[in-house]
Amino acid sequence: MTAPLTLISHHLCPYVQRAAIALAEKGVPFERVYIDLANKPDWFLKISPLGKVPLLRIPQDGGEAILFESTVICEYLEETQPGAKLHPADPLTRARHRGWMEFGSAILSDLWTYETTQDADVLETKRGVLRTKFATVEAELGDGPYFAGADFSLVDAVFAPIFRYFDVFDTISDMGIFDGLPRVIAWRKALAARASVKAAVTQDYPERLMAFLEKHDAALLRSRRAAA
Fold it and tell me: What are the phi and psi torsion angles at 187 (to 5°)?
């Protein structure tokens, strides 16, 4: 029996989540190993060229192969594994989907500053940046329920972890980022209900994210305290 794939993970990493979602959508058995990115084990540093997660360990005769970078992992799974197709068959549409995956990665970069800044002015600036980017997404979306309609795709796998952040952020304060964006709101709800999306994190994800915000003394938390 072939050994399962192993996804080297961190509990909060959105890039890990997109790989986990792709694995689940493909129906590929896999194991997960979690590491502490603040205290990276030596074995991990030896196999991760960038010192980042996710990594995918693929058993090979006499050893294993290691893939790094979430997009590379997702593309490999699409090309090698059976199950539902997560990319469109048409080359032009597929290329456009890859572009929107990169757009999602750009949103994640903004989210990093949004959730870690201690400066209220920076928080407000990033709130505006995020709102503008989601408005751009709103203009691209159709009738749903997913990015390209009825079929779940890798673009959905990229955006599901983005929306998951806001499930926690919304319990802190209403920043109005999705106001007037009905298609984005509907897409967010559809993704949150997807089994693969639910299974991509552990049940204590909200508590872990809140602890992360507290550790960084995030301005987002101070906005809640000010409102209280």
Answer: -60, -45
Is-catalytic flag, 13?
yes
Is residue 107 within 8 A of residue 161, CB to CB? The reply is no
Of the two residues 78 and 61, the one the predictor is more confident about is 78
Find the helix or strand (DSSP H, E) in which 199 lies.
none
Reduce the DSSP state of residue 166 to 3 states and report it: helix
For 30, residues 6+ apart whose C-beta sits below 8 A from its C-beta are 4, 5, 6, 7, 23
> Which pTM value belongs to this model?
0.95
CB 126 within 8 A of CB 170: no
Quick one: pLDDT at residue 224?
57
Pick from 206, 199, 196: nearest CA to 154 = 196
Specify the 3-state DSSP secondary structure of 86: coil
Contact 148, 158 (CB under 8 A): no
| pLDDT the model gives residue 226 | 46
- Cβ neighbours of 91 (radius 10 Å): 9
Q: Of the listed 13, 16, 53, 209, which one is catalytic?
A: 13
